[in-house]
């Protein structure tokens, strides 16, 4: 095993892959060629995919017979939930979407009733067209032998191959469903950072069999009693009151998300927004690489309905409204055709202006995926969008350069936005409660649970929990 480049101890294990690093750190391993039996070379690269996660890229090449192969493996932890991505292919551009699929991804093309089972293919980085081409190649591989041994089956497969090849001409729209129980699959959004109208993403809770397939077992299933250490030790009644918890800063060790070194995470329970909202503030500081991050976790029960709050930004004061954003809250700015989905920015307690700054910073910091792209149209669109986002600021005058509206949508109803006229209705806000969809309840694990509603006090058109 040989590293092609020396590595400083402070460098992260998984580095961003950008055009500024033309010689990324790779590891070369001598490997057996499954095609000819000679030894070939496998190159391994640990990197990050922007807007996705850490991955391990592996490329094999045999200099004796010319055989080549490449695959991708997730480098981070298995997600808490699986993911189901439904793509409607309507244009040729949709066939060129990049796709990251793990070993546990099943692919289904609804219109032709075709499915590639999970674990039948290795993980790979490809395109939608590449998925179809690989399926065609696999079906054509043994056709000469089938025509001799079973001509009827070979004829049926020939007819099905014609249907698959016809899909690439897009004579009519068709639907591709990627379902991955590990949650490690991804489909490119060519309109990023704007919303993708042809993709629907659902995160679902795995069942016990699916957990076992991923090698996840509970302590009871493997016959090991959980250790009562750290935060998991048993607390007797009266030993630790709620008042004590509010005044205590808890600390525990976690791997640094940037370099992987063990670092300290501080956690504290506190109340915000008129001393009602209880939240957990978490802050991580890595002394090895200097990485810092903080997040706000909403606490409390899940409300019976979702909430959608829209605010019109017409003055400098509107930029200073406090915002509590939970992990399941999505954001939208209609004037920019911008939608930021759930889990994108994490949980935050900030202001309206702070949300704009966070969106801009994330887009710029992760924008190498678009700026380094050879697609001139995509690069132009992203640069124009970031320029428009920068124009929404309050630094030069008391009145914003552009008037706009923004809305937060939280199907858990654990997000809130500050009212300036409380307890009277705020004319600058529009608050709507709505019934959650079945998919929302499935993501929250509520479909199989018995729910108990909470009491609510309605003041005018505003709804406040008490």
Question: Can you walk me through this structure?
Answer:
The protein is α+β, with helices and mostly antiparallel strands and about 475 residues long. Strands 1, 2, 3, 4, 5 and 6 form a six-stranded mixed sheet that branches. Strands 10-9-12-7-14 form a five-stranded antiparallel sheet. The chain is about 20% helix and about 35% strand. The protein has helices spanning about 90-95, 130-140, 145-150, 150-165, 210-215, 240-245, 275, 315-320, 350-365, 370, 375-390, 440-445, and strands at about 1-5, 15, 25-30, 40-50, 55-60, 70-75, 80-90, 100, 105-110, 115, 125, 175-180, 185, 200-205, 250-255, 260-270, 275-285, 290-300, 305-315, 320-325, 330-335, 340, 350, 405-410, 415, 430-435, 455-460, 460-465. β5 (about 55-60) and β6 (about 70-75) form a beta hairpin.
């Amino acid at each position: 095993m040989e590293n092609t480049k020396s590595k400083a101890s402070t460098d992260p294990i998984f580095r961003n892959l950008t055009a500024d690093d033309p010689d990324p750190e790779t590891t070369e391993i001598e490997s057996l060629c499954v095609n000819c039996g000679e030894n070939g070379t496998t190159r391994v690269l640990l990197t990050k995919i922007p807007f996705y996660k850490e991955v391990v890229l592996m490329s094999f090449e045999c200099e004796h017979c010319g055989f080549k192969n490449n695959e991708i493996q997730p480098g981070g932890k298995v997600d808490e939930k699986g993911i189901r991505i439904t793509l409607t292919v309507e244009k040729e551009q949709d066939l060129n979407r990049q796709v990251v699929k793990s070993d546990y991804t099943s692919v289904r093309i609804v219109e032709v009733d075709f499915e590639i089972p999970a674990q039948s293919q290795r993980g790979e980085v490809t395109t939608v067209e590449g998925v179809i081409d690989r399926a065609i190649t696999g079906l054509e591989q043994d056709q000469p032998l089938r025509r001799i041994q079973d001509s009827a089956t070979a004829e049926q497969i020939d007819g099905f191959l014609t249907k698959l090849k016809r899909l690439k001409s897009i004579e009519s729209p068709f639907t591709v469903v990627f379902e991955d129980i590990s949650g490690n699959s991804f489909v490119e959004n060519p309109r990023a950072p704007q919303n993708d109208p042809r993709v629907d993403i659902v995160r679902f809770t795995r069942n016990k069999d699916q957990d076992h397939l991923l090698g996840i077992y509970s302590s009871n299933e493997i016959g090991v009693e959980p250790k009562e250490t750290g935060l998991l030790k048993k607390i007797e009644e009266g030993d630790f009151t709620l008042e004590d918890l509010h005044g205590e800063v808890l600390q525990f060790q976690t791997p640094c998300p940037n370099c992987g070194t063990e670092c300290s995470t501080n956690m504290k329970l506190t109340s915000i927004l008129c001393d009602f909202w209880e939240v957990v503030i978490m802050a991580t500081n890595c002394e090895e690489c200097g990485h810092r991050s903080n997040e706000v976790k909403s606490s409390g029960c899940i409300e019976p309905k979702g909430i959608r709050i829209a605010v019109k930004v017409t003055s400098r004061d509107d930029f200073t409204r406090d915002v509590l954003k939970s992990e399941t809250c999505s954001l939208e700015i209609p004037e920019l055709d911008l939608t930021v989905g759930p889990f994108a920015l994490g949980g935050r307690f900030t202001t309206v202006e702070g949300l704009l700054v966070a969106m801009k910073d994330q887009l710029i910091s992760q924008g190498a995926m678009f700026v380094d792209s050879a697609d001139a149209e995509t690069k132009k669109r992203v640069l124009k969008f970031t320029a428009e986002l920068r124009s929404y600021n309050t630094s030069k005058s008391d009145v914003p350069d552009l008037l706009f509206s923004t809305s937060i949508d939280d199907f858990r109803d654990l997000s809130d936005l500050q009212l300036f006229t409380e307890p009277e209705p705020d004319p600058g806000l529009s608050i709507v409660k709505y019934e959650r969809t079945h998919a929302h309840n499935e993501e929250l694990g509520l479909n199989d649970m018995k729910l108990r509603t909470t009491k609510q006090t309605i003041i005018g058109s505003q709804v406040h929990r008490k």
